[in-house]
């Protein structure tokens, strides 16, 4: 009789001891100084979850008794923490449902079939009501915390919203008398994670996730309110930084860029690793037109992204359920995303070249090309905005080198593009009329996946830059040759409009800035202008006039062609026509900014130049135009 009386107690002690050994083993491996990589950590997690589950099977092998229920729920908590940490949410939810149903059996509370699936809110309210303020209350509240974590990890924000009052009260109850009532002895079964720390983490992560969701839906005011509450909660610095970051994004959407910048600065002051705050600051500087601040932010962002990103072992006290597991919504991920180091480097190079810091920009372009040619391509990651194709980057770098008065280096890059693409060019290219819904610059590939239009335009642009280099070196004969090669490639292109036969494109067909047709016409205009200017230097004025006039037909915005066309007319004695040509060029309003185009498509700043002041003086001396 006595043996039967003490046997359950003996089992209970053994199970408590087994649970505590597993918890202590885990804490020693992860928090006690062992250096574990991510793979090792996951292996230990799988092992622990398996051992906890085996222990749970032993405990649940007997009918649910009040004396055993606290231990059972503690083991369920430990097992579910391990399952959730491995993103095994269905396994964790199954254990939660089974264990809470056993709690209801202990308290003789009847439920519907599969109540958790039909109405999880009603089910958990029934469980909480059944345990009331008994010794089982803290055990059940811990399990509710894990259900909360699973809902958050699986982006069930509406479910959390509907259960918000109960969830937030968990924090108060676990922090005060209910928790203390549940901790009666030092011999109680141990937990792998302090539930009070877990609730603190869940609370701020919930506010952050809800704020990000509201922001993505355009509800900036609601998001700002939630984030303001979250910023005052006890939490790791990274999460507090996220609240400042998202608050800045709300203010930016509300048209308050200066206040947004202040929030981004707070995010960086809180956690210097919050690179998305630096990236968002850069976007605000761009919006405000503060180019120097934008370049400085790009430079700092690139240098930080290039730092070694060695995987650090988990620190002592690091929670099993990390913020990254709980904050995985698509809306939040997009707000926290930062382009790759190479994408930032490309932006930095281009921005420097476009805003007068050419030497700096050239060095950044050369660093970019060197990184792309290396084997590791450090700084690229999945999901980054794609970089331009390599020929495009070569041409951009070549144009920058020419602007820096390094024509020989520019020629070397142009020759590389020509060598790579020339043999692949077709005899004829038909350019389909772009759909209105297509993005600017999008191209249809050939059946073999080749960008035939792109290859032709890159090769033509390489010849154009080659001609600019010859002009810079005053080698007029070679300049004429390379400009002619550029133009001869471009005339292979025919535009096919719906319902019509392919035809030679003209300036009045050009639609969106940046489309292939726009680039084609711009290249035609620049190559003809370059050849016409070269003819003027060898006194071939009639040939020069022909090319310059054709240039203006293809690319009416070409100021260089307009001024030199007037100069040739002046030299031919057609001074009234020359004056009218100059006046028309100065009065012409460009339809678009050159900054939206690749740098090699800009009008060249090297080579022979005309002084507008001198031209205006000539017009004045000529007298008023009729």
Topology overview:
Elements lengths: L1 H30 L6 H22 L6 H20 L3 H18 L8 H4 L1 H12 L5 H17 L3 H6 L1 H12 L1 H6 L12 H22 L3 H12 L5 H17 L3 H14 L4 H14 L2 H15 L17 H4 L3 H7 L4 H14 L3 H16 L16 H14 L3 H15 L7 E4 L19 H21 L3 H15 L2 E4 L19 H22 L3 H14 L4 H13 L3 H13 L24 H11 L4
Parallel strand pairs: 1-2
Give a quick precis of the structure:
This protein is mainly alpha-helical. Helix content is 67%, strand content 1%.
Can you offer a commentary on this structure?
The chain has helices at 2-31, 38-59, 66-85, 89-106, 115-118, 120-131, 137-153, 157-162, 164-175, 177-182, 195-216, 220-231, 237-253, 257-270, 275-288, 291-305, 323-326, 330-336, 341-354, 358-373, 390-403, 407-421, 452-472, 476-490, 516-537, 541-554, 559-571, 575-587, 612-622, and strands at 429-432, 493-496. With 626 residues, the chain is an all-alpha fold. Among the domains are: 8-106 and 118-177 and 187-193, Serine Threonine Protein Phosphatase 5, Tetratricopeptide repeat (Alpha Horseshoe), CATH 1.25.40; 220-308 and 320-338, Alpha Horseshoe (Serine Threonine Protein Phosphatase 5, Tetratricopeptide repeat), CATH 1.25.40.10; 460-496 and 512-625, Tetratricopeptide repeat domain (Serine Threonine Protein Phosphatase 5, Tetratricopeptide repeat), CATH 1.25.40.10. A two-stranded parallel sheet has the order 1-2. The longest helix has 30 residues, at 2-31. 41% of the residues are buried. This is Fanconi anemia group G protein isoform X1. It holds the Pfam family TPR_8.
């Amino acid at each position: 009789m006595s043996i039967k009386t003490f046997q359950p107690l003996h089992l209970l002690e053994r199970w408590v001891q087994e649970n505590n050994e597993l918890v202590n083993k885990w804490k020693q491996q992860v928090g006690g100084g062992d250096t574990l990589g991510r793979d090792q950590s996951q292996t230990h997690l799988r092992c622990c979850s398996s051992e906890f589950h085996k222990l749970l099977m032993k405990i649940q092998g007997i009918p649910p008794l009040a004396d055993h229920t606290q231990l059972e729920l503690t083991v369920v908590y430990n097992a579910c923490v391990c399952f959730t940490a491995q993103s095994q949410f269905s396994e964790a939810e199954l254990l939660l449902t089974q264990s809470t149903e056993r709690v209801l059996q202990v308290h003789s509370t009847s439920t519907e079939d599969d109540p958790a699936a039909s109405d999880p809110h009603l089910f958990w309210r029934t469980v909480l009501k059944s345990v009331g303020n008994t010794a089982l209350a803290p055990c059940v509240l811990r399990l509710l915390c894990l259900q909360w974590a699973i809902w958050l990890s699986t982006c069930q924000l509406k479910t959390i919203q509907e259960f918000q009052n109960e969830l937030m009260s968990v924090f108060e109850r676990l922090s005060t008398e209910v928790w203390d009532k549940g901790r009666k002895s030092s011999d109680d079964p141990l937990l792998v994670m302090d539930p009070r720390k877990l609730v603190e983490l869940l609370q701020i992560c919930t506010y952050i996730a809800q704020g990000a969701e509201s922001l993505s839906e355009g509800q900036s005011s609601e998001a700002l309110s939630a984030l303001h509450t979250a910023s005052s909660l006890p939490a790791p610095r990274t999460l507090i930084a996220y609240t400042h970051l998202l608050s800045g994004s709300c203010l930016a959407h509300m048209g308050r860029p200066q206040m947004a910048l202040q929030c981004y600065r707070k995010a960086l002051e809180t956690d210097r690793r919050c690179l998305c705050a630096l990236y968002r600051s850069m976007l605000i500087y761009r919006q405000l037109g503060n180019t120097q601040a934008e370049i400085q932010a790009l430079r700092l962002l690139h240098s930080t992204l290039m730092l070694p990103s060695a995987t650090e072992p988990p620190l002592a006290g690091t929670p099993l359920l990390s913020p990254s597991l709980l904050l995985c919504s698509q809306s939040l991920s997009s707000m926290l995303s930062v382009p790759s180091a190479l994408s930032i480097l490309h932006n930095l190079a281009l921005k420097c070249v476009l805003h007068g810091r050419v030497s700096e920009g050239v060095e950044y372009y050369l660093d970019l090309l060197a990184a792309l040619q290396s084997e590791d391509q450090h700084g690229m990651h999945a999901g980054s905005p794609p970089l331009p194709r390599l020929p495009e980057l070569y041409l951009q770098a070549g144009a920058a080198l020419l602007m820096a008065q390094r024509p020989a280096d520019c020629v070397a890059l142009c020759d590389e593009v020509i060598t790579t693409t020339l043999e692949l060019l077709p005899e004829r290219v038909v350019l389909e009329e772009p759909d209105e819904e297509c993005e600017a610059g999008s191209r249809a590939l050939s059946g073999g996946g080749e960008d035939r239009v792109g290859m032709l335009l890159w090769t033509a642009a390489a010849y154009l830059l080659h001609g600019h280099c010859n002009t810079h070196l005053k080698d007029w004969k070679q300049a004429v040759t390379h400009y002619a090669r550029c133009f001869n490639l471009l005339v292979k292109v025919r535009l096919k409009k719906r319902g019509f036969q392919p035809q030679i494109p003209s300036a009045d067909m050009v639609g969106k800035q940046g489309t292939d047709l726009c680039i084609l016409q711009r290249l035609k205009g620049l190559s003809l202008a370059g050849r016409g200017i070269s003819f003027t230097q060898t006194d071939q004025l009639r040939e020069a006039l022909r090319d310059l006039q054709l240039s203006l037909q293809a690319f009416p915005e070409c100021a260089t062609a307009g001024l030199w066309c007037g100069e040739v007319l002046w030299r031919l004695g057609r001074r009234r026509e020359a004056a009218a040509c100059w006046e028309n060029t100065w009065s012409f309003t460009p339809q678009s900014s050159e900054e939206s185009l690749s740098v090699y498509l800009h009008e060249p700043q090297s080579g022979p130049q005309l002084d507008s002041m001198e031209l205006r003086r000539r017009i004045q001396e000529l007298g008023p135009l009729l």
